[in-house]
Amino acid sequence: MADAFADLVDDESAALELAQAVADEIERAAAPLRNRVERLEMDLARAITAGLIRKL
């Protein structure tokens, strides 16, 4: 990936900075989805637990 960015910029350190900036932006954009998945997992665990308790 750094090689592809190196073609766009003059030096390798600038390419690495650009790659890091892209990675940081992807991480930032993915955070809400990760939080939503965690909430859904907790909801599922509660539903399964409630179902098991009802069967007792």
Description:
The protein has 56 residues and is mostly helical. The protein has one domain. The chain is built from two helices and no strands. Helix 1 (2-8) packs across helix 2. It is rod-shaped.
Q: What are the salient characteristics of this protein?
A:
single chain, mainly alpha, 2 helices
What amount of the residues lies in strands?
under 5%
Order of helices and strands: HH
Helix percent band: over 70%
Average of pLDDT:
87
Low-confidence stretches: none
CA(first)-CA(last) distance:
55 Å
How large, in whole angstroms, is the Cα Rg?
21 Å
- Structural classification: mainly alpha
Our count of helices gives: 2
Please give the domain count: 1
Strands, helices and their partners?
Elements: H1 2-8, H2 12-55
Helix pairs in contact: 1-2
Could you provide a short overview of the structure?
The chain has 56 residues and is an all-alpha fold. The chain has one domain.
